[in-house]
Amino acid sequence: MLYHPVKIGSLTLPGNLFLAPVAGYSDMAFRSVCVDGGADFTYTEMVSSEALTRGSSKTEILMRKAPNEKAYAVQLFGSNPAMMALAARLVLEKTGADCIDINAGCPVPKIIKTGAGSALIRDPEKLFALVSAVVKAVDKKVPVTVKIRSGWDAEHITWKESAQAVIDAGASAVTLHARTRAQGYEGRSDWNILRSLAEFAGQKIPVFGSGDVFSPEDAKSMLETTGCSGVMFARGAMGHPFIFRQTRQLLEKNFYEEIGFDERIKAGFKELGLLISDKGENAACREMRKRFCAYSKGAAGGAELRRRIVSASTEQDYKNIFAL
């Protein structure tokens, strides 16, 4: 069966359709509507180990668990093993996280220049040391997972060395975004590499896939062609948190129900309400401009809707736009 439970170390999940950690998007509000939409597991956006150890209140907001999340992971990034270990212990003290994920894949220059994100896959020994430190710090209280990329660039494909370092360090799962750091989010994700990783590491730890999963059909194809244990949706879930439920329907019943515009906008308003509770109306309404643009994609008169959305500043503005 393509849809099935997944065991990550001591953690057992009911299914294998996950919300990926997406910087600037995977906050508590968005994760909550994705859980409503059928996500089996969710990841926070990247949390800076340095900021967390300094006591940043903004960082603690990023780690908040949504009321309807039965299980979720906090993703940490950093380059210093000792600081990452301390941050992991703080995550366990301050949250109810069920898993800690280590970001070894972010291609953003400001992250890489600190030695974090994709910079780690250039140095398997450093990756091993960092993952080992976090695994030791959590002391089996929760599993530790790692997200990697296929390599630094086309001339430096390092997924196998990175995966081996992750396994040797004691991680309980590995996720591959099958693009190089140089590709960023451009070009195509190479699922052949994901298949090779699943063959290489799949007997030892679960292998999850990320990259170019924009529809239920994409998710089914990834599972069928690569043999990975689970799928992470990132951009495919933006404005469409129901993609998890639709994918499960496709995998189990070979069809899925379409989602009407009204239901999509209802989810958007739930997300807005949660964001207002978390960040206040002003900040929440600014943040929801891009998100309501995603929710309204494909709607009749979409261009005019989006023109009005990008100027919205209050909850009432959004209600006026959508005639609620």
What key phrases describe this protein's structure?
324 residues, 14 helices, eight-stranded parallel β-barrel, 12 strands, alpha/beta
3D structure, described in words:
The active site is at 106 (proton donor). This protein has helices at residues 28-36, 49-53, 57-62, 81-94, 109-112, 124-138, 159-168, 191-201, 216-226, 243-253, 261-279, 281-295, 302-309, 315-321; strands spanning 6-8, 11-13, 17-19, 41-43, 47-48, 72-77, 99-104, 144-153, 156-157, 173-180, 207-210, 230-233. It has 324 residues and is α/β, with parallel strands linked by helices.
Summarize the structure.
It is globular, with a radius of gyration of 19 Å.
The poorly predicted ranges are none
Distance between the termini: 42 Å
Task: Count up the helices.
Answer: 14
Shape: globular
Strand content: 15-25%
Secondary-structure content class: alpha/beta
Please give the number of β-strands. Answer: 12
Question: Which series of helices and strands comes N to C?
Answer: EEEHEEHHEHEHHEEHEHEHEHHHHH
Rounded Rg: 19 Å
Approximate helicity band = 40-55%
Largest sheet: 8 strands, parallel, barrel
What's the pLDDT, averaged over the residues? Answer: 96
Strand order of the largest sheet: 3-4-6-7-8-10-11-12
Write the layout of secondary structure elements.
Layout: E1 6-8, E2 11-13, E3 17-19, H1 28-36, E4 41-43, E5 47-48, H2 49-53, H3 57-62, E6 72-77, H4 81-94, E7 99-104, H5 109-112, H6 124-138, E8 144-153, E9 156-157, H7 159-168, E10 173-180, H8 191-201, E11 207-210, H9 216-226, E12 230-233, H10 243-253, H11 261-279, H12 281-295, H13 302-309, H14 315-321
Parallel strand pairs: 3-4, 3-12, 4-6, 5-6, 6-7, 7-8, 8-10, 10-11, 11-12
Antiparallel strand pairs: 1-2, 8-9
Keywords: Flavoprotein, FMN, NADP, Nucleotide-binding, Oxidoreductase, RNA-binding, tRNA processing, tRNA-binding
Domain DUS-like FMN-binding: 19-318
Family: Belongs to the dus family.
